[in-house]
Specification:
Helix content is about 50%, strand content about 15%. The chain is α/β, with parallel strands linked by helices and about 270 residues long. Helix 1 packs parallel to helix 2. The protein is globular, with a radius of gyration of 18 Å.
Length: about 270
């Protein structure tokens, strides 16, 4: 039986990558529902700005702001202990922190690739590993993995990012089956390109025009995540209607590959 969240009131929530984009939108949406929020991000200034916004939304909000690099295992363990010490447990972990770079792999510095994998994969595992014993002891919890359409579709010019998100997708799928009997529900989210500073001017230039035109807002993703948890979904795309992409890939892989290659590579050749 799928676990559903009927109310977010007083739910103890950790959000990584909280200071911008999807993380910020989720923080605001959950603040309106009176959740308790542990906001995790690398930049203290971004967390301070977000905290000010959240207090305006919910003056009595129970909130922790934690400057933390998700790739630093010791720092993650200490941050998790800080949350548990304050609230006695953790009900919901949203693994949202991530980074990317747009370039063909042959032109990608492997030091940059290491940084992407450290944040997107190791960071996700660090926080999940830290939180799991707490949730197992509670025999209750929810873990959300913010993957990407690129976590199920190999997109040219994003090879390292794709590798990181495929890793997250597979990890989440396996983990879901491992921890279900402990009362822990895992949800994986596959958003299309999201209109945030995550995409620099350089990145947007390299994206096919159609991708830029169909970008979605972080607020849409946040609301879909909340609704997915309320329904007990294990995975979904945002927007949900785009789940047909995976069906086309499965049924007509050669056609899908040819179209993806043409769309991206033809655009890059014009730059």
């Amino acid at each position: 039986m799928r676990k559903k969240i009927n109310s977010f009131q007083d739910l103890r929530v950790v959000i990584t990558g909280a200071s911008g984009g999807i993380g910020s939108a989720l923080s605001m949406a959950l603040a309106r529902q009176d959740a308790r929020l542990a906001l995790v991000a690398r930049q203290a200034e971004g967390l301070e700005a977000l905290a000010t916004q959240l207090k305006a939304i919910s003056p009595n909000l129970s909130m922790l702001s934690i400057v933390n690099d998700v790739g630093d295992r010791l720092a993650v363990n200490q941050a998790c202990e800080q949350v548990v010490s304050a609230w006695g447990g953790i009900d919901l972990l949203i693994n949202n922190a991530g980074c990317a770079h747009h370039s063909l792999f042959i032109a990608t510095d492997l030091a940059l690739a290491d940084n992407i994998l450290q944040t997107n994969v190791t960071g996700v595992m660090n926080w999940t590993k830290a939180v799991l014993p707490v949730m197992v002891a509670q025999q209750s919890g929810w873990i959300v993995f913010v993957s990407s359409i690129a976590g199920r579709v190999g997109v040219p010019d994003e090879s390292v990012y794709v590798a990181s998100k495929f890793a997250v997708t597979g990890f989440a799928e396996a983990l879901s089956m491992e921890v279900e009997s402990d009362g822990i529900h895992v949800t994986t989210v596959f958003p299309l390109a999201v209109d945030t500073p995550f995409f620099s001017a350089h990145a947007r230039q390299r994206l096919p025009p159609r991708t830029v035109q169909t970008m979605i807002s972080p607020e849409v993703v946040a609301q879909q995540i909340i609704q997915g948890l309320q329904k007990g979904d294990r995975s979904f795309t945002v927007p949900r209607r785009y789940k047909f992409i995976f069906g086309i890939k499965a049924l007509w892989p050669d056609f899908f590959r040819a179209q993806t290659k043409k769309t991206v590579m033809d655009h890059l050749e014009k730059l």
